[in-house]
Input
Amino acid sequence: MNQVGVFQGRLSPPVGNRIQAFPGAHWQKEFEIASELGLSSIEWILESPLEENPLWTDHGVIEMADVVRRTGVSIDFICVDYFMESPFVRMSPMVRERNQSVLKHVLEQAARLNIVGVEIPMVDASRIDSLREEDELAKALEPGLDIASKRNIQIGLETSLNADRFRNLLETIDHPALRANYDSGNSASLGYDPAEELDAYSKWINNVHLKDRVLGGGTVPLGKGNADIPKVLKLLRDHNYSGDFILQGARQDNPRQTLQHYLEQVTRWLAEAAG
Output
């Protein structure tokens, strides 16, 4: 059965003017609010500085596990935004070694928390621009995929590739631990057809970000942009998708009220998709 969660930071005031960031001193409170709202999970963010994120340290992982146990709100996925800053493409040998080391440590920490998947964003500054970069990514991920498989964790790629290229990349890497993230807003911004995308690679999708964006532009409240989310939900149902839906809509003045509204919208759309 599909569960609805939220992206970390969306239940806290923004960090500076950033749309998305680890919420620092507010992260524990987010789990309490998510529990009160009836959200099932929070997708964790890992970014620089790594050492200041609870996920990075043994003490922090113990604290995370305690908050999950206390609130009943799980952490199913970790989005490693660090790899937006240090992409798995266009790497020097030193950066490749560092990225592989970071991924290894994340997977080891994730295993202690029974995480379902670790996501690597390959969009914007970390986007894949060429077939050569696809090969570079595939080779760099090999050690991490093997570690993930041994620890029963999935590695999900979020890319800006079109349907055919993304499917080809997944088929080329061809690893049992490899999965895909689907982001409704990013696809809408790029003008992609969700029916074509899901026909191409739905069998790899293990997590869905519910976001709305205007064509060629930024994030807006759910239902206000070019992402036809009710259609996406119906298509995912038709493809027997049973994973999480993570709310990642635009911020508004009151984070709690905004997420409550988004949850009500998505709950209604899911019911409509079910017929």
